[in-house]
Amino acid sequence: MPFPVLAQNISRPYENNPYSRYGVGEEFNAINPAIKAMGGISAVYQDPYIVNTENPASYATIKNFTYEGGAEGRSRTIISGNSRYRTGAFALSYLNLAIPMGKYAGAVIGFKPVTKVNYLLYDTVQSLIGPTSYEYSGTGGLNNFFIGAAAKIKGLSVGVNFGYMFGTIRQSNWYKTTVTTNYVNNSEFISSNSMGGFNFKLGLTYEHDLGKDYMLRIGGTADLSQKINTEVSEFWISHPFYSSDTTGSDTAYSVKSAMRKITLPGSYSGGIFLAKGDRWGVGVTYKTTNWSQFSKPNIIDSIGSSAYKVALGAEYTPNVLSLYKYWQRVTYRAGFNLGNDYVSINGKQANYYAATFGLSLPFRRTNDRIHTSFEIGKLGNSANGLLQQNFIRFNIGVSFNDKSWFVKRKYD
């Protein structure tokens, strides 16, 4: 299922990502901006005042009740041949509640989007019935509501997320003749998938004290391949040739509420992190996803056999205990990531790379933080016959840490 032609006309008043046409949409990396600013090294990152939902083993270090929320703004320039198109959006990234459960255990309740589908493509070709325009559109995506828990024994932390993934993806292909004298009706093919199913994720970390305030951490996560139910509705509709009005349209074929299954691929990540107290830390991670396991009912999709991501990131806090110099308590972060996307067009998978940076801004004399991250990168290469996306993403999140639940009141 390649893109219609490279000279397609892309236009939409809100976000339009042609790559989200495939699979279950564009993956939405819904993690704390503090981790995104470090290139996304979520497999090995943990902090007692930041919730890392990508590795549930990190919950074991949670010290206080932590309330988190975040949002993402993104802008992308899509390059097709000599044409450029600008699109963007602003959306919720995540909502988390972390709960300490003793000194060496913790739990998290959270919600986050998993994938986003949003595209609108046009193409005009010369067919046997004359000039014909094709319109491809899609909306929707998947979300995940989950609970997780973790415990730590000596240096080893083990955690698990158990969630329910749900959402609806609606896609439409509309073929229209542009000559009104050939008496050929227009055709529209609509597919709607309402999905829902349980999922789980395993994570672990191991920390080793190297002495002189140095610490080495290794970590990893595993998402096993899993099936989720989907309720499929399909409609083939014939529209009158003589007008854009749909009055008089006829449904030639329909399937309503057919229960099927989608197989989601397994994903694994691992990495290493070196830190010196609360001053600085640097880490590197690798993630791979086996997309050959993916299957979607009655669909032959443009999916590669695998996708990978390599991330490198670092953080630095001049003096976390500084009382009078605010910028000494700010955490500065930077990183880099590269890899390939799971979409494969004409046997070519789209590569990507991005540079990241950001800050964590503390509230005065508390552990609460405002986290920011910026990501600048490129996906695909127009020179290789693929659509190229130059993108900028801005993320902002807030972490409120409340220890009053565990402080005994002197006065009521």
UniProtKB/TrEMBL annotation:
Question: What is the designated name of this protein?
Answer: Membrane protein
Question: What is the organism field in this record?
Answer: Rurimicrobium arvi
